[in-house]
Input
Amino acid sequence: MDSIHDIYKKFLDNRCTKEEKDFLFRYFDLDQNDQHITELIENELSQESNEELSPELQVILKRNQTKLQSIVSLKKKRNYKIGLLTASIAASLLLIFSVLYLILKVQEVPGESKDIQQKEILAGTNRASLILENGQTYDLREDGNGITVSNNTISYTDGTQITATKKPQIATLMVPRKGQYITVLPDGTKVWLNAESSLKYPTTFTEANRVVELQGEGYFKVAHDSKHPFIVKTSNQELKVLGTEFNLNSYSNERSTVTTLIEGSIQLNGKSGNAKEILKPNQQASLTQSNYTVKTVDVETYSSWKEGEFRFKSTSLPDVIRQLERWYDLDVNYKDIPSQIQINASISRDKKLSSVLEVISDISNVKLKVEGRRLMVIQ
Output
């Protein structure tokens, strides 16, 4: 196959084969290719034309203006005369945003669009349930990006009250597959919960220690209180801090409990054996059975999920699939998924599953398909 630059030029001349076009679209979807994309767009911006831009593409331009701001700034530094939607670059922008438009647009085959839409599996959203110890259950709003707890009153972050209790109760925030949610605890601690996770905590902290229980994955930004240590309990670990930021992955189907420290200090205690560790920023501790393994890591790789991004850095294919399994609510048989393959990519978590699988398949050379909700390897 030709180079990406040659394929891009063929696309502009309407000479692409279907295979080349599919490859081009997948390439543009990959954040790791931003530098190459920037060069391609800059080359097009340097061309001159007197054609006008259609109103439809002007809308697309405005929607993607932020993404291209750095490119425009670069051009200005190089003394190119670039003005937004000027006639001298109109045709070039038309071509560029035609590409963007085709990427963003759902491609439909006549007579098959209905079937395709039915088979598409969409990304997860803000979904969660709140369960109180008195048995009250609340299905939380998807348009709400979080809840807060203060003086035994639980409200959405916009101030809308969910419930109030006369005395402290234990609340459990449960996030299903295809969900995520944020909660602000009574002390001001902020917790992001990933898919298939739950957090149990009191509506008011009244004890010497601020104790919560986590199942699954959570990112914690702990409010500092030197007199009241903050403790996170999982099935096989107890974590103790005064005030810090960290990501904790304690899914039962993962090989180990993984704690990644962003800032501050953390004391870890394994519940079996005598495993103990104190972490420093940018360190990660993995607890397997009764032993900790500590290493220095790129912490953004392990916290990017709360910013709406899958970030894989030498991540094994089964580990990648487990993240997709929870976010898209899939059934997976792992026996056919090769464990030796490693993935390096950054992919938005708001993409449809089919788009994500195309990228993963292209990188890994392992063909993946979905039937119903079953993810399988094509032999």
Observations:
- The CA atoms of residues 26 and 359 lie 6 Å apart.
- The radius of gyration is 24 Å.
- Residues 29-33, 48-91, 101-118 have pLDDT under 50 and may be disordered.
